[in-house]
Amino acid sequence: MIIPGTRLCVRFCNILDLHEFVYQVHRWHPRKRGLFILTDFRIIASHPVQYHVPIFQALVERGLNIEVGYYHEGTARTVGRDLNFGLDIQWDIDLLGGYPNRIFLNKTATYTLHEQLQIIFPMVLWVLRERSPVLLMGWFIESIWLIWILVLLFRIPVMVLSETTPLSYDSVSKPKWRARLLGWLLNYSQAMLYIGSQNRDFLSRMGIDKNRLFSAPYSVDNLRFSSAAKSLMLERLELSSQFGLDAMIPTFLFAGKLISKKRPLELLEAYCSAGLSDKAQLLFVGDGILKAQLEKRVKELRLNHVHFLGFLNQSKMPLAYVLGDVLCLISDSTETWGLVVNEAMACGRPVIVSEMVGCAPDLVDETNGWVVPTDDPDALAQTLRQAYEERHNWDEKGQRSLEKISRHTYDAMAIGVLSALNSLKTG
To answer: Among 21, 127, 363, 366, which is most buried by a count of CB atoms within 10 Å?
Structure first.
């Protein structure tokens, strides 16, 4: 059968060969799930992301025949505007090598209705031609919902890897129909990959049976970060001097976008309230809309030990964790994970996180850091003070960070995807 409205959408978009679509629909016949070649599958993602690409590369290294379909190229090949950083950037690591991929929109998308309609049917055809299972990297834009529905209607097995937590989901109001539709889509998909315990809790709340849940612990390239940090640590005195820091003074680190959800202003105020402005340094690495406000506040308070390093590209990020002694990520409930925590831990650093940060229950406890209540300035100031007073334990806590993060690897994520894929045979 032909989906109602197909001809109209095709005519509007002017990008789909109608005969091809009709041909694919008419030649389609459901196959028993066990007949799928379970080394072949398609992956649908918004754009190349520096934290996702190594997962795809790890799957290829394990002999899987994958192809990643991107809505748009992002900043993989050209400089693009990052609105949160407030900068024109291009990542300095290869985001398109080491795995097959296809870009459906050769520019950075603004996700207009026209752009979304341009992509829907070519992407569905791309899936139908191979009839392989599909892995969705979240539900990142409206049109992905339609693609998701169409793929399910054609009885193609769907796996989903998302970051959503109960806190992040509840933080945004949404109509009841949207929540019901998401629940339907999730429950009719065959396998769910969860990045951590809070993500798993969300999927369980949506009614997903535990037998369809597979662990894919969220990861960064631990080896790259740890190796670079060890090398840079030999030059820490010179590097600190180069960036105007005193290597002999304990340093708290903020690494990320200077935006409200990351709460950099609250960190600055807590640093002052803790009485640390003359005893410890506070280093901000990153850029964003709040930078001017932060600099103004630092000037008002005449703070001599607060420094701004600016934006560091991906290959340079280990420098931040060498200059800083303790990472602070005190984001609000929309922080679904916080991969800077992985990065800092891979560099052997203790961490301070708010209880709403998605990775908190999986990565941080008293052995390698501190978990603080959100929206409690006094508690944050007290924790910073406590961390400062326990600075003689920072090396020990950093070692524990290395041990804990060793379980979060791209190989572990690839194993999770393989487990989900193998479940399709008997699901």
So the answer is: 363
